[in-house]
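Weekly sync notes, structure subgroup
Attendees: PM, AL, DS (notes)

Item 1: joint prediction request from the bench team. They want all four components modeled as one assembly rather than separately. Inputs as received:
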Amino acid sequence: MAEPSTARSLKRSSSPRKAATVEGDIDTSYLETLTGYNARRAALTIISVFLERMAQYELRPVDFSVLSLIAHNPGITSRQLCGALDILPPNLVGMLRVLETRGVIEKREHPTDRRAQGLHLSAAGKKLYTKAQRTASQLELDTLSDLSPQERETLHSLLRRVYRPTRGPAASDQTM
Amino acid sequence: MAEPSTARSLKRSSSPRKAATVEGDIDTSYLETLTGYNARRAALTIISVFLERMAQYELRPVDFSVLSLIAHNPGITSRQLCGALDILPPNLVGMLRVLETRGVIEKREHPTDRRAQGLHLSAAGKKLYTKAQRTASQLELDTLSDLSPQERETLHSLLRRVYRPTRGPAASDQTM
DNA sequence: TATTGTTATACTCTATAACTATA
DNA sequence: TATAGTTATAGAGTATAACAATA
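Output from the run, pasted for the record:
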């Protein structure tokens, strides 16, 4: 058993960008030409705020993602969660067990496949997720307050095109 | 001692987006409204390619970032690296030791502070970094081939505004 | 034979406390 | 007293191999 208890610590300092030593003197211009560097820095910045505000629900980003997909896809299976969130099956087991122990989710028998199990939010889980989603949406507004709604949409669109390559029209692998 | 050897494994599967099970059936639309989610997914996608292509140099993303900052900021100190890259000092020690053992970097005495030490690339380090940077820049072109140069610049600009909040004009904390 | 969920486990990443030498 | 670099170590995150039950 890998999980010590139901409630996890969730602590993390997250270092809110303190310019203790000099930092403006350092030339980071080349790294800033790399999308991976910029995307990772941006993600970590937002995640640090996410951790703070979601601590009240004892939800890490991955827990919230799992609940969100279950909420919007009732009956989703463990494997489907893994595929959608890029989590390895062994690493999901413990998370689901904790969420089930907390009474947030329920495992029901799959309608057609007796190996699988459909995942659902409990009544308490729905209440928790509703509050958590509101917090997440508010966090989005707060951390991206420097960007206009249109800039935010542009950012999301561009990011999606990075991690979910355009399989759309004008593709190169068409049969004729 | 935390490092087992000079050369590290660098192995990682990185799962190149295989749609093994269904995945298009899963509704991820809410998560995709969250910048943190999108930024993290994009970063992980690029980093997985980065890991593959940088394996020949035995450099992880963090190693490359360290070398890049030393290359462009000769004499930079350990603390400055930590500040610029958001790495905790204890976690940098091992990386620098490995790079020094590999003959890639050199530690020299700091000109004014005898506690600190200036970091520099060795001749071999400069050759290695030059090749690595070329690989990184090519990777940027390849992984972002769906985006025009202008879209790429827009993406970088927006990401920087997320992780490095605009401290510029029209700020709210002015004295008058 | 392949897939779902699972256990056990190893490895990597990230964080804290505490020490020394110097400022 | 505070800071730079370091050690030791704990905790969280990510990976592989292998198994039973079912498809």
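Discussion: The helical segments of chain B are 35-54, 61-72, 78-85, 89-101, 123-143, 149-163.
Action: AL to compare against the crosslinking data before next sync.
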